[in-house]
């Protein structure tokens, strides 16, 4: 099961974990013991990892609240099982995955930001919507999350995002169905044990304002308040050290070199990520039926109607047409 220590964490990060996550050697040791004891009694959670690095990411995500940790852990395994098209066989050597990662759409920068966090950098216009689906995009994001979570410092400090939204248009939005959008936001915020700290959007077209507002509405108030928009990268540089970004964005290292560096990181943790597929979520038919009824009820109550999405897309299209006519 591995040592219940934080040997990989430097003193500064250990202090941060104590102050922000209620983590001490004693709380960690006791929580891991209780969590492992609980897992033994959960027969529906099969072949789950019980090593230190895997379990502690859930405890840190929930600031060592054991009951909340159990809920997220169960939800994570359930999500992997029932949305296997997103979570299973996340293989950087699979041609389509390799292709989307090589496109420069989504990378993690080699250097950390001023707060010691890894930074996810994304260029929406790099996605070829004639080649990639919403499922392909989500798989790339989840592979990235799983790779980042293998690092204990990232478990503590969380991640920062920088999204370059230049040249994004309706075609990039229309590949997402309403259910995909709801599922994606629920998965990223509530089922993946990763701390989303700063979220920067740069060059967001005004015609996408409705879509942006809709996306924020699906998130908790706490997370949605971390969204920041910047008209250009010069404005971003006032709040973010742009020297760690790719060349052309304020840095000196080419996007191609950064992309290759991130792909190598994915290669390095490939086996560990693929091994996650061994974990299974099984329930008796009665319990599964009860769960599905509960989920369907919640979806009917909370999920946006298709007509609402269509109206929003029509509004965006009208704004784009007006912009084109006046140009």
From TrEMBL:
<protein>
    <recommendedName>
        <fullName>CRAL-TRIO domain-containing protein</fullName>
    </recommendedName>
</protein>
<feature type="domain" description="CRAL-TRIO">
    <location>
        <begin position="93"/>
        <end position="257"/>
    </location>
</feature>
<dbReference type="InterPro" id="IPR011074">
    <property type="entry name" value="CRAL/TRIO_N_dom"/>
</dbReference>
<feature type="region of interest" description="Disordered">
    <location>
        <begin position="286"/>
        <end position="327"/>
    </location>
</feature>
<dbReference type="InterPro" id="IPR036273">
    <property type="entry name" value="CRAL/TRIO_N_dom_sf"/>
</dbReference>
<dbReference type="InterPro" id="IPR001251">
    <property type="entry name" value="CRAL-TRIO_dom"/>
</dbReference>
<dbReference type="GO" id="GO:1902936">
    <property type="term" value="F:phosphatidylinositol bisphosphate binding"/>
</dbReference>
<dbReference type="InterPro" id="IPR036865">
    <property type="entry name" value="CRAL-TRIO_dom_sf"/>
</dbReference>
<feature type="compositionally biased region" description="Basic and acidic residues">
    <location>
        <begin position="317"/>
        <end position="327"/>
    </location>
</feature>
<dbReference type="Pfam" id="PF00650">
    <property type="entry name" value="CRAL_TRIO"/>
</dbReference>
<dbReference type="GO" id="GO:0016020">
    <property type="term" value="C:membrane"/>
</dbReference>
């Amino acid at each position: 099961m591995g040592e219940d220590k934080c040997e990989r964490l430097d003193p500064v990060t250990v202090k941060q974990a104590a102050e922000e996550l209620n983590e001490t050697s004693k709380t960690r040791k006791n929580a891991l013991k209780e969590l492992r004891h609980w897992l033994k009694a959960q027969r529906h959670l099969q072949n789950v990892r019980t090593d230190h690095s895997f379990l502690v990411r859930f405890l840190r995500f929930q600031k060592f609240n054991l009951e909340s940790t159990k809920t997220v852990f169960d939800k994570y395994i359930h999500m992997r099982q029932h949305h296997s098209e997103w979570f299973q066989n996340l293989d950087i050597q699979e041609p389509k995955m390799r292709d989307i990662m090589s496109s420069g759409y989504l990378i993690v920068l080699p250097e950390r930001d001023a707060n010691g966090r890894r930074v996810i950098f994304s260029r929406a216009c790099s996605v070829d919507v004639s080649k990639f689906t919403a499922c392909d995009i989500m798989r790339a994001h989840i592979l990235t999350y799983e790779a980042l979570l293998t690092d204990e410092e990232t478990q503590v400090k969380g991640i920062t995002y920088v999204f370059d939204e230049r040249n994004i248009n309706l075609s990039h939005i229309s590949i997402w169905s309403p259910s995909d959008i709801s599922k994606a936001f629920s998965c990223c915020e509530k089922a993946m044990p990763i701390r989303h700290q700063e979220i920067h959007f740069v060059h967001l077209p005004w015609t996408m304002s409705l879509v942006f507002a809709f996306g924020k509405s699906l998130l908790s108030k706490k997370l949605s308040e971390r969204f920041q928009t910047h008209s250009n990268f010069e404005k971003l540089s006032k709040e973010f050290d742009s020297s760690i970004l790719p060349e052309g964005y304020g840095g000196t290292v080419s996007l191609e070199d950064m992309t290759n560096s991130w792909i190598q990181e994915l290669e390095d943790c490939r086996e560990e990520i693929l091994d996650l597929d061994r974990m299974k979520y099984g329930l008796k038919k009665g319990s599964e039926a009860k769960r599905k009824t509960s989920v369907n009820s919640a979806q009917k109550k909370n999920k946006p109607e298709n007509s609402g999405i269509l109206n929003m897309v029509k509004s965006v299209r009208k704004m784009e047409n007006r912009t084109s006519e006046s140009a």
